[in-house]
Amino acid sequence: MDFKFSEEQQMLLETTRRFIAKDYSFETRHKIKDKSEQGFSPDAWQTFADLGLLALNVPEEDDGMGGTPIDTMLVMNAIGEGLMLEPYLASAVVATRTIAVLGNADQRASMLPALASGEAIAVLAHDEPSTRFDWQAVTTTAIADSGGYVLTGHKSVIAHGASADILLVTARLDVSDGKDSLRVFAVPREAAGLRHVSYTTVDGIRASDIWLDQVSVGADAILDGTVNTEAQLGDILDVGLAAICAEAVGALDRLLARTVEYARTRKQFGVPIGKFQALQHRMADMVLHIEQARSMSYLAAVRCTDPDPVARRRAMSAAKVVIGQACRFVGQQAVQLHGGMGVTDELDVSHYFKRLMAIEMQFGGTDHHLEIFAGQIS
Fold first, then answer.
1. Is 229-377 in the same CATH topology as 7-120?
2. 7-120: CATH architecture
3. CB atoms < 10 A from the CB of 1, how many?
4. Residue 133 contacts residue 162 (beta carbons within 8 Å)
5. Rounded to 5 degrees, what angle do the CA atoms 166, 235, 352 make?
6. CATH of domain 124-221
């Protein structure tokens, strides 16, 4: 199989990498994390928009670029390399695709241009304290009211939730036949009854717990451009899973490069520690894990839109298992090979390690996906 990227795809990757190398150093990231009110850089976000990256997942019929998951994979590779804090995955990938797939024509026309231009940010408020890794175990409720709906529930660890202009809230709608009751509602950030508690997660990403206390929304808030919201939402989350796998590969590549560079310069007993055979073997094992992760990231990007849900989710679980194992192994080896410096806040190695540990748990942890994969082949 030919894994070469097209000229346009290679340009997409290199353009994103050049921007990060020029304007998003580790020191810049450190300042953004500690001093930015939003938890990310509005200037960097606007640059994403100017480069067309925020329109990548907007369909061509909605005046977007109509990019593929392979295109998204390349951008996420570069974002992982740069350890960026911006809500690209949350808004430009998952939320944008949610609106593009579930929204009707009027909803797409009202929200997608603002997301593509960087004027607005949207996030999918889906996870709850009780869902764990079962994405269908949503307890937030939506009750039809005169002229709209009333939402009640609690969403947890929503990345960039406090910065979102639009919250795409998943809720169970009381329907008579009990079928496909899961729906998505576009809720403005300033809606009455909406409460945020924001905090910074271990990997430096700003997140929120969100409470909806009888939040009233209009009838046009429900994304009703499809007849099977629950199945489509599963498809959307698989696209997000493929994207975060690509981010992991970018971070793994950079972490390996940092470790090899350190092994070449750090001396013990008068020679670089990279000369020690035992450490060479450990770095060789890191390379093997990363190359396996890269292959599975390609698989995830290719299969995340497979119309066969069983085959698709088997492939996605397999990818998440291999990449999750790589995140843990490579992260731990990099920290150990750096010694005590590997856990200091001043060295970027510790930040890559923490981001990789967070990625391992997002969209379902390694053990969870291993159980899913084993259950499908038994």
1. no
2. Orthogonal Bundle (1.10)
3. 4
4. no
5. 70
6. 2.40.110.10
Helical spans, DSSP H, in 83-104: 96-102
Could you tell me whether strands 122-125 and 206-218 are parallel, antiparallel, or unpaired per DSSP bridges? unpaired
10-residue stretch averages of pLDDT, the chain, 378 residues long: 84 95 93 91 96 96 95 97 97 98 96 97 94 86 91 96 96 70 94 94 95 95 88 94 98 96 84 83 96 97 94 95 97 91 87 96 93 82
Q: How far is CA 203 from the centre of its chain?
A: 13
Tokens of 353: 């390690």
Could you tell me the CA-to-CA distances from 216 to 104, 118, 163, 181, 371 in Å, in that order?
20, 27, 21, 18, 39
Best CA proximity match to 47, nearest among 122, 118, 121: 118
Would you kindly state where each structural domain of the chain is located, as residue ranges? 7-120, 124-221, 229-377
Q: How far apart are the first and last CA of the chain?
A: 28
Beta-sheet pairing, 166-173 with 122-125: parallel
Q: Report residue 236 as tokens.
A: 């959307």
Report the relative pairing of strands 141-145 and 166-173 from DSSP bridges.
Answer: parallel
User: Could you tell me the pTM of the whole model?
Assistant: 0.94
For residue 363, give both structure tokens. Answer: 């969209």
Question: pLDDT over 70 for what percent of the chain?
Answer: 98
* Average pLDDT, rounded, for the chain: 93
Q: Cα(241)–Cα(177) distance, rounded to whole angstroms?
A: 31
Q: Which residues contact 89 (CB under 8 A, 6 or more apart)?
A: 76, 79, 159, 240, 243, 244, 247
Which residue shows structure tokens 């060479």?
280
**How many other β-carbons are positioned within 10 Å of the β-carbon of residue 43?**
10
CATH placement of domain 229-377: 1.20.140.10
The answer for residues whose C-beta is within 8 angstroms of residue 61's C-beta and 6 or more apart is: none
CA 42 to chain CA centroid, Å, is 18
Question: Could you tell me if 219 and 149 are in contact, meaning their C-beta atoms sit under 8 angstroms apart?
Answer: yes
